[in-house]
Sequence to fold (263 residues):
Amino acid sequence: MDLNLKSKVALVCAASEGLGKAAALELAKEGSKVAICSRNKEKLFLAKQEIVNETGAVVETFEADLSVHKDIKELHADVEKKLGEIEVLVNNVGGPPPGTFENLSDEDWQIAINLTMMSALRMSHLVLPKMKEKKWGRIINISSVSVKTPVRNLFLSNSIRLGVLGWAKALSDEVGKDGITVNTVCPGSTRTNRITTLFSVTAKETGQTLKEIEKISAQSIPMRRIGEPQELAALIAFLASERASYMTGLAIQVDGGSARGYF
Fold:
């Protein structure tokens, strides 16, 4: 299937590892010119080498802290200068840390809102004018299945990601007439450093091994396994394509069936 993404300029945020890197790799496979950003220069370099070696695509790296508004504005300007106008934006950041409600401070909430929500709003605000001019654009947010089914001990993620989802739905209504789609992908347990960290917290609490925790976690998933990053990346590439031109305002989980509701 030709996704018609050849030479499209795509920015994938927080793409030095995990789901972001998998999304960048998949878009590169489709021939997109890919910009990846992260706070970690060394990991960015390694991610670029891996993607270029596998695909031969044009890949540019940008150091940026997505919790800093100035960095976001500079990132947008630098990507446009090197690659051109951004046509596909994948909003992504590392998930907020786990914690019970009683243990979270006002500062914890403010930090999480600024990173998880404001980074997506600020980045999208910058790319929309050129997308509207072209009458074409794709905004895809990497979220979590926690927007469908709250996850134990993830108060920050459970709460703030729903705010992003509400914003994305409202934005899809506003920009649909301009040929721009706005969608959100919601991964469940997926083999990334993030899930390893969460499993480590549980292992510390229970005295079990990581392998035991993963096996127990998989038992609650109908497919009885943890997901792989490329499985989410395939959906992101499809949503970025012309093939998905009539799909917008959606929140689609890739979770092996773990979310128990339809909506």
